[in-house]
């Protein structure tokens, strides 16, 4: 395989976006919070919420001392609000198991609520400078095209970590840069549709480009349409609870104008099952 690491690292140093979590002062807690927020959420939406979150809860211990309702309220419209509860629980675990310090060991990170392979490695690498492969959707797309000659990556798999590990240089410091650079390349140049191959630092070594850009299919799971979905109904209920005095609403008044009463009830039931809402005396409220 041609050396892709060196040109990616050189390109990244010259072209990396100025994002808050890339600054050395940001710290492991800031990196962890940013990774929770960035899951399936665009960078532009995350940054203002991230800044507000860290102003209110600058440490895991500070968040652990807040209520789950406060975490869900502050999550606002980021989507997938279970992440707010998971982050709140993880903060308590960091306080209780690690003296309030975000751990650097991958196994310790994986033992925290809501943290999987990607987030654990992202914290270890980008917060602590460890040498591990970090693979997100953007990384997988770069590897699929440049190394495998495919137009789109397949479903996530453990082999993705092996493929990224093979790309990393031996230098620990350089491996951090290459991890970040490969993600950045997939985010701004090797994008899913209309990739900017003329701006790509590894275009000459790209197997997909060499093969003439064949359409090898797209096996990725498609997300269901949001408009009219149960997800939209859940969002409407949560928004009403966040905005209500005391974050509490009579159940009979929850999302009353929603056009599908059965869907509304499903949304309420699923929020209760996920721990995002609770009932008492005919009322629905955010968790306390």
Can you tell me about this structure?
The protein is mainly alpha-helical and 288 residues long. The chain has a three-stranded antiparallel sheet, with helices on one face. Helices cover 52% and strands 3% of the residues. The chain has helices spanning 5-15, 27-38, 43-56, 60-64, 68-75, 82-98, 106-110, 117-126, 137-146, 159-167, 172-188, 207-210, 230-243, 261-273; strands spanning 248-250, 278-280, 283-285.
Low-confidence stretches: none
Strand order of the largest sheet: 1-3-2
Helical content stands at 40-55%
Beta content: under 5%
Q: Please work out how many helical segments DSSP would assign.
A: 14
Structural class: mainly alpha
Shape: globular
**What separation lies between the terminal Cα atoms?**
54 Å
Order of helices and strands: HHHHHHHHHHHHHEHEE
Q: Give a short account of the largest sheet.
A: 3 strands, antiparallel
- How big is the Rg? 21 Å
Give the total of beta strands.
3
> What do the pLDDT scores average to?
93
């Amino acid at each position: 395989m041609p050396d892709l690491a060196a040109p990616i690292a050189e390109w990244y140093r010259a072209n990396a976006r100025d994002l808050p979590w890339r600054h050395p002062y940001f710290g492991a807690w800031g990196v962890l919070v940013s990774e929770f927020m960035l899951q399936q959420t665009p960078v532009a939406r995350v940054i203002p919420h991230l800044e507000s979150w860290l102003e209110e809860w600058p440490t895991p211990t500070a968040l652990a001392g807040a209520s789950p309702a406060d975490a869900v309220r502050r999550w606002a419209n980021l989507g997938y609000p279970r992440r707010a509860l998971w982050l709140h629980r993880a903060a308590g675990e960091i306080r209780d198991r690690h003296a309030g310090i975000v751990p650097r060991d991958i196994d310790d990170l994986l033992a925290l609520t809501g943290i999987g392979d990607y987030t654990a490695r992202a914290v270890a690498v980008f917060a602590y400078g460890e040498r591990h492969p970090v693979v997100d959707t953007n990384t997988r797309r770069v590897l699929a095209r440049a190394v495998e000659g495919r137009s789109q990556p397949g479903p996530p798999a453990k082999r993705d970590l092996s493929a990224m590990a093979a790309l990393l240089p031996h230098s620990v410091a350089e491996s951090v840069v290459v991890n970040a650079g490969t993600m950045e390349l997939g985010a701004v140049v090797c994008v899913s549709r209309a990739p900017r191959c003329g701006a790509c630092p590894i275009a000459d070594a790209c197997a997909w480009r060499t093969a003439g850009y064949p359409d090898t299919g797209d096996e990725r799971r498609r997300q269901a349409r949001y408009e009219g979905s149960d997800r939209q109904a859940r969002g409407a209920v949560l928004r009403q609870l966040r905005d209500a005095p005391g974050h509490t609403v009579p159940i009979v008044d929850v999302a009353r104008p929603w056009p599908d009463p059965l869907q509304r009830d499903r949304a309420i039931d699923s929020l209760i099952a996920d721990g995002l809402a609770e009932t008492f005396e005919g009322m629905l409220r955010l968790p306390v």
